[in-house]
Specification:
Number of helices of chain A: 20
Radius of gyration of chain B: 21 Å
CATH class of the largest domain in chain B: Mainly Alpha
Oligomer: heterotrimer
Structural class of chain A: mainly alpha
CATH superfamily of the largest domain in chain B: Cytochrome-c3 Hydrogenase, chain B
Strand content of chain A: under 5%
Number of strands of chain B: 9
Radius of gyration of chain A: 26 Å
CATH architecture of the largest domain in chain B: Orthogonal Bundle
Largest sheet of chain A: none
Helix content of chain A: 55-70%
Distance between the termini of chain B: 14 Å
Structural class of chain B: alpha+beta
Number of strands of chain A: 1
Largest sheet of chain B: 3 strands, antiparallel
Shape of chain B: globular
Order of helices and strands of chain B: EEEHHHHHEEHHHHHEHEEEHHHH
C-alpha cells in the first residue's frame, strides 16, 4: 500500500473519528510524559504503588505478612496471587483473543466479523461460550468413556504451566526457576498426550488420523525447537528466562536478530506443535474434519478450540521472551510498564499467526515431515555449531562490546538469508518439476484432440 | 448407493481400514460420499456413493412441457444455472426448429459467460479451501461472484436458480441500470484475476500441494469422457464454443487456455484464464449488442415433430448436453441430461488409488463437482 | 431434420462400418446407425481407432425405453476431426435387456452405464462393476421405464419411500 492510499484511507475515517484518534494519542502522550517525569524523578521507584512492576506490591504484601504470621502463609498467599493473576489473564486472553482472531480474519477476508453482541461484538465469545455450555455433550458409541472425558481438561494443563517462567517485568516472574528453558520444552510436549488420548478414545478414524498426525509432528518438531532454544542458551549462558531477557536488555540486542535461524526455526516449528496454519494438518478441516476433536461436542469442543488460541498466545509470549527482548524495550520500559511491553510483543506475534492463518494454504503431512527431517534439523544442528563458536568468542572477550555483537548479528543474518536462498528445498520439487518456468496455461484457437495436444506440447 | 465394492480388512493385522468421507464432510461439496479403504494415510481402494440428492429429474421431465422443464436445469447444476438453461433451450430449439433473435443470442452469451465466471470463482475458491487456505481466497472470489449474482437478480429476480433462458430467446430484457453495472464489472474483472493469480499462483505451499498431484494424461482425459477445464487442463485444446459455435460464439474473438501437465494446478490455472477470456467475450458482446426483440414467440405447449436432438453447450464444468426424444406431444418422450460433474468423476477411482488423503481431497476439489448435477 | 451441425450422416458411417466389419450394421438412418449388439464393442473400437472417424471420446450414453425394446444411444465425438457420430444399440425385447458394455473401449462409460442400468434397467454385459448408481440395491424396478408407475406398490406422489415401513400400505 502506497503512502498516498494509506493517507486516503486515514482520511476516509472522517473528521470526527480522526479528531478522536488524535485526542486519544495526545492524551496518552501527555499521561506518559507526566508519569515519566514523576518516575524518572525517582520518587516512585521501588515503592509498592509503583504500577510499572507489580512485583513491588507483592513484595510489600509479603513483608507485611511475614511481620505478623508464619512464613508459610506469605508463601501461600503470594503463590495464590500469582496463580490468580495468570489464570485471570488467561481467561481474559481466551475471551478477547477469539474476538480479535475472528475480527482480524474477517478483515483479511473482506468481511466484517462479529459485530452484533455488545460493543463492536466484544461479547460474542461470551455468547458463544454460553451457547456451547447449553449443548449436549455426546459420547460416541464404543468410546473409552474415561479417556474421552479427560483430554479437554488435560489439554489445558501445559498451556497454563507454560506461563510460569515467563518474566513479565524485572520482579514479576511467577516461577523464576533456573531451568526455565528445559521446563518450557518439557511442559509444551505434554499436550500431545492429551491430544492423542482424545483421538484414541473417540473411536473414530478421523480422530485417530488427527491424533497420529499430531504425534508425528510433535516428535519431529520437538527436535528443531530444542536445538533453537539451545543456541539461545549458548549465547546467554543461562537457562533462566528472566536472565535471558536481562541479557537482551543489557546488550540492547534482541536475540531474534542475533540468531535469526534459531528464531525462524523456533517460530515455524512451534506453529507445527500448536497446529496453526500452515502446519495445521492435525485438524485439517478439508481432510479429516476436525482431527482429534472431531467427536467432541458442546463445551468440550469449545475447550479444545479455546486452548488452540491459548497455545498461540503462549507461543507469542515465549517468542517475545526468548527472541524479541521480553519486557525490555531499549530503556523505554522505565516509562511504559514492562508487562504492557511484553503483552504488546505477544500480541504482535499473535497477529502474525492470525495473518498466516488468513493467507496460507496447508502443507501435506509428508511434506512437513520431510521439511523437518531433511532440512530443518540439519540446519539447526549446523546453526548450533556456528553459535557455539560465536558464544565461545564472546565469552573470551571480557566485555562483549558492540563491535563483535553487531558483526555476529550481520554474519548470522547473512547465513540465514543464504540458507533460505540457496539451501531451501522447494517443496514442489523446484521450478523445473517436469515443466518449464512458465506457470500460465497456453492460449490457443486451434482445436483438436490427442494429436493437437501433442502438437501443442512439442511446440516451444 | 450400493456399498459392496470396498471391503474392510482386519485393522489389527495392518490391513486397510474403511473411512467414510461424507455424506457430510467439508470437502465433498455437498452430499457426496466416498467410501475409502485406507492404509495409514494412503488410499488403497475407493468407492463413490452418490444419489443422496437424486430427484428423478429425468422422469419428472417426461410429464412436463419443454418450457416447464427449464427450471429443472437450474436445479441440476445450481452453480451454473444459466448454462443448463441454455443447453436445454438449444436442444429444444433444434428439435422444434425455432429461430432465435440476434439480441437474444447476444444476451445468452453475456449471461452464460457471467455464469461461467461465477462458477469458476466458486470452483477455484473451494479448491483452494480444500488445499487448506482458510477460506480467504474463496471469499475474495465471492466478491466478484456477488456482483454477478446481483446482475442476475436485477435481470430475472433470482440469483442462483435463474430460469432465465426461454425457448426462442430469453425471458426478460435486462433493465437499463444493468448495463453500466456490467460495464464496470467487466472493467474490474481482469485486475481481480491478476490479484488471485498473484495471491496463489506463485505461493510455494499452493504449488507444493497442487503441482504433480492428480495428474490426468491427455489420452486418459479423452477416453474418460472428461470435458471442460478438466480436459483442457490435461492439454487437450477442446472447447464447444469454438468447435460447434452456438449463439454466435464464432463472432467473438477469444482463446482457449490449455494446461500442460494435467495436474490440479493446471486445472486451477485454466479456470483462472477462462475468466479472463470470458471477460473478453462479454466486453465484445456488450459493445455490439444488437437492438431488437429478446424473444421469438413460441407456443407455450410446444409440440415438436417426432424426432430426437442432442443440444450441448460448454458449461463451466464441461459439456452440458441434453438428449431429447420427441413423440409429437407437448412433453419430451425422453429427457436425458449429460451431466459433466458425474462423467468427470469417471477417472476419480483410478486417480485416488495410491494417492494420500490430502491429495485425493485436492484432486476431487479440482474436478469441481456439483452434487445437484451428479444426482439430478 | 434436427441434426447437430457437425454430425456425420448415418449412411457414411454405415458404409464404412459395413466394409470393415460386415454384419455389424442393423439399420441406417440419415442421422444415426443402429449396430448389432453382438458386434457393438468391435464396431466402437473400430470407430475409435480408425483414421477416418477417430471417435476418441464417448460424449454421452443414454438409454431410451421404446415399450417393446430398449435403445442405448452413444454420442461419439472426434476431437481431432471435430465431428460427431451417433450410434445406437437395441435390446431384442423388454425382457432380454442385455447390451454389451462399452467400458473396455471408453472408460467414460463406467458411470454412464451404471446410471442407465440403475434408472432404465439395461444390463451391460462385461461392465466391470455394474451396480446401481443413485438408488439402493433392492429398489424395486427401474424408474425411467415407461411402465414404472404401474409396478406393484408404486403410486405417483408416494408419501414415503417404498420399503421404509414394510408393514404399512402406502396411501
Amino acid at each position: 500500500m502506497s503512502a498516498r492510499s494509506a493517507l486516503g484511507r486515514l482520511l476516509a475515517l472522517g473528521p470526527l473519528r480522526l479528531a478522536a484518534l488524535a485526542a486519544a494519542l495526545a492524551l496518552a502522550a501527555a499521561a506518559n510524559a507526566v508519569v515519566g517525569y514523576v518516575v524518572i524523578d525517582g520518587r516512585l521507584d521501588g515503592e509498592w504503588y509503583d504500577l510499572r512492576d507489580l512485583g513491588f506490591a507483592v513484595a510489600r504484601l509479603r513483608a507485611e505478612l511475614d511481620a505478623v504470621a508464619p512464613p508459610a502463609l506469605s508463601y501461600w498467599v503470594t503463590a495464590l496471587v500469582g496463580v490468580g493473576g495468570i489464570l485471570g489473564f488467561l481467561g481474559l486472553v481466551l475471551l478477547l483473543g477469539s474476538w480479535v482472531e475472528r475480527r482480524l480474519l474477517a478483515r483479511f477476508q473482506i468481511r466484517r466479523g462479529p459485530n452484533r453482541v455488545g460493543p463492536f461484538g466484544l461479547l460474542q465469545p461470551l455468547a458463544d461460550a454460553l451457547k456451547l455450555m447449553q449443548k449436549e455433550v455426546l459420547v460416541p458409541r464404543g468410546a473409552d468413556r474415561l479417556l474421552y472425558a479427560v483430554p479437554p481438561i488435560a489439554v489445558f494443563i501445559p498451556a497454563v504451566l507454560a506461563w510460569g517462567p515467563v518474566p513479565w517485568a524485572p520482579n514479576m516472574t511467577y516461577l523464576d526457576i533456573n531451568v526455565g528453558v528445559l521446563y518450557v520444552i518439557a511442559v509444551s510436549s505434554l499436550a500431545v498426550l492429551a491430544l492423542f488420548m482424545a483421538g484414541w478414545a473417540s473411536n473414530n478414524h478421523y480422530a485417530l488420523l488427527g491424533a497420529m498426525r499430531t504425534v508425528a509432528m510433535m516428535v519431529s518438531y520437538e527436535i528443531p525447537v530444542s536445538l533453537a532454544l539451545l543456541s539461545v542458551v549458548l549465547v546467554t549462558g543461562t537457562l533462566q528466562l528472566s536472565e535471558i531477557v536481562l541479557w537482551q536488555e543489557q546488550h540492547r540486542l534482541w536475540l531474534g536478530l542475533l540468531l535469526p535461524v534459531a528464531f525462524l526455526t523456533f517460530f515455524f516449528s512451534s506453529t507445527a506443535e500448536i497446529n496453526r496454519t500452515p502446519n495445521d494438518i492435525a485438524e485439517a478441516e478439508s481432510e479429516i474434519v476436525a482431527g482429534y476433536h472431531t467427536e467432541y461436542s458442546g463445551m468440550k469442543a469449545g475447550l479444545f478450540i479455546a486452548i488452540e488460541l491459548g497455545n498461540a498466545v503462549v507461543l507469542g509470549a515465549l517468542v517475545a521472551t526468548m527472541f524479541l527482548g521480553g519486557w525490555s524495550l531499549f530503556g523505554l520500559e522505565t516509562w511504559i510498564p514492562p508487562y504492557l511491553v511484553l503483552a504488546a510483543k505477544t500480541g504482535a506475534v499473535y497477529f502474525v499467526l492470525v495473518w498466516l492463518r488468513g493467507t496460507l494454504p496447508r502443507f501435506r503431512l509428508d511434506q512437513l515431515m520431510g521439511f523437518a527431517w531433511k532440512y530443518l534439523i540439519p540446519i539447526s544442528i549446523a546453526n548450533v555449531g556456528v553459535v557455539a563458536v560465536e558464544a565461545a568468542i564472546l565469552v573470551r572477550l571480557d566485555a562483549p562490546g558492540i563491535v563483535p555483537l553487531s558483526a555476529f548479528t550481520l554474519l548470522n543474518i547473512a547465513l540465514a538469508v543464504a540458507c533460505a536462498r540457496f539451501a531451501m528445498p522447494e517443496p514442489s520439487g523446484g521450478p523445473s518439476a517436469g515443466r518449464g518456468a512458465s506457470h500460465a496455461p497456453v492460449l490457443t484457437t486451434v482445436l483438436g484432440g490427442l494429436r493437437a495436444s501433442e502438437r501443442l506440447r512439442s511446440a516451444p | 448407493m450400493s456399498e459392496q465394492a470396498v471391503e474392510p480388512g482386519d485393522a489389527a493385522a495392518g490391513e486397510p481400514y474403511i473411512l467414510n468421507i461424507g455424506p457430510q464432510h467439508p470437502s465433498t461439496h455437498g452430499v457426496f460420499r466416498l467410501r475409502v479403504a485406507m492404509d495409514g494415510e494412503r488410499i488403497v481402494d475407493m468407492d463413490m456413493i452418490v444419489g443422496y440428492l437424486h430427484r428423478s429429474m429425468e422422469k419428472l421431465a417426461e410429464e412436463r412441457t419443454y418450457t416447464q422443464n427449464i427450471p429443472f436445469t437450474d436445479r441440476a447444476d445450481y452453480l451454473a444455472a444459466m448454462s443448463g438453461n441454455l443447453g436445454l433451450c438449444l436442444a429444444a430449439e433444434r428439435l422444434a426448429g425455432v429461430e432465435v433473435p440476434e439480441r437474444a443470442s447476444a444476451l445468452r452469451v453475456i449471461f452464460a459467460e457471467l455464469q461461467r465466471i461465477a462458477s469458476h470463482a466458486m470452483g477455484n475458491g473451494t479448491l483452494v479451501s480444500d488445499a487448506g487456505a482458510w477460506q480467504t481466497p474463496l471469499l475474495y472470489m465471492f466478491r466478484e461472484r456477488e456482483r454477478i449474482l446481483d446482475l442476475f437478480e436485477m435481470t430475472c429476480g433470482a440469483r442462483l436458480t435463474t430460469n432465465y433462458m426461454r425457448i426462442g430467446g430469453v425471458a426478460f430484457d435486462p433493465p437499463a441500470e444493468f448495463f453500466p453495472k456490467l460495464d464496470s464489472l467487466v472493467d474490474d474483472l481482469p485486475s481481480c484475476v491478476d490479484e488471485y493469480v498473484e495471491l496463489l499462483a506463485e505461493n510455494e505451499i499452493f504449488l507444493a500441494r497442487t503441482r504433480g498431484v492428480g495428474v490426468i494424461s491427455a489420452g486418459d482425459a479423452i477416453n474418460g469422457s472428461l470435458t471442460g477445464p478438466q480436459l483442457r487442463g490435461s492439454g487437450v485444446p477442446w472447447d464447444l464454443r469454438k468447435a460447434e459455435p452456438y449463439c454466435g460464439y464464432e463472432r467473438y474473438d477469444f482463446e482457449i487456455p490449455v494446461g500442460s501437465a494435467g495436474d490440479v494446478y493446471d486445472r486451477f490455472m485454466v479456470r483462472m484464464e477462462e475468466v479472463r477470456q470470458s471477460t473478453r467475450i462479454i466486453r465484445q458482446a456488450l459493445d455490439a449488442l444488437p437492438p431488437g426483440p429478446h424473444k421469438t414467440e413460441v407456443p407455450l405447449a410446444l409440440r415438436p415433430e417426432p424426432g430426437e436432438a442432442y443440444g450441448r453447450v460448454e458449461g463451466p464444468r464441461g459439456e452440458v448436453g441434453f438428449y431429447l426424444v420427441a413423440d409429437g406431444g407437448p412433453a419430451p418422450y425422453r429427457f436425458h441430461l449429460r451431466a459433466p460433474s458425474l462423467i468427470n468423476l469417471s477417472l476419480l477411482r483410478s486417480l485416488a488409488i495410491g494417492a494420500s488423503l490430502p491429495d485425493a481431497v485436492v484432486t476431487l476439489g479440482s474436478l469441481d463437482i456439483v452434487v445437484g448435477e451428479i444426482d439430478r | 431434420m434436427p441434426a447437430g451441425p457437425r454430425q456425420l450422416a448415418g449412411e457414411r458411417v454405415a458404409a464404412a462400418l459395413e466394409a470393415a466389419l460386415p454384419g455389424s450394421v442393423v439399420e441406417v438412418h440419415p442421422e444415426w446407425v443402429v449396430l448389432a449388439p453382438g458386434r457393438l464393442v468391435e464396431a466402437l473400437r473400430w470407430l475409435r481407432d480408425s483414421e477416418e472417424f477417430d471417435a476418441a471420446q464417448l460424449s454421452s450414453l443414454c438409454a431410451v425405453d421404446y415399450h417393446s425394446y430398449f435403445e442405448v444411444v452413444y454420442h461419439l465425438q472426434s476431437l481431432d476431426l471435430n465431428q460427431q457420430i451417433v450410434v445406437k444399440a437395441r435390446t431384442t425385447s423388454r425382457e432380454d435387456v442385455s447390451v454389451p458394455s462399452a467400458c473396455e473401449v471408453y472408460r467414460g462409460a463406467l458411470l454412464q452405464e451404471r446410471e442407465a442400468y440403475d434408472l432404465m434397467g439395461v444390463g451391460f454385459e462385461g461392465h466391470p462393476d455394474l451396480r446401481r448408481l443413485f438408488l439402493w440395491e433392492g429398489y424395486p424396478g427401474h424408474p425411467l421405464r415407461k411402465d414404472f408407475l404401474q409396478l406393484e406398490g408404486h403410486h405417483p406422489g408416494l408419501p414415503r419411500f417404498p420399503f421404509e415401513e414394510p408393514g404399512v400400505q402406502s396411501r
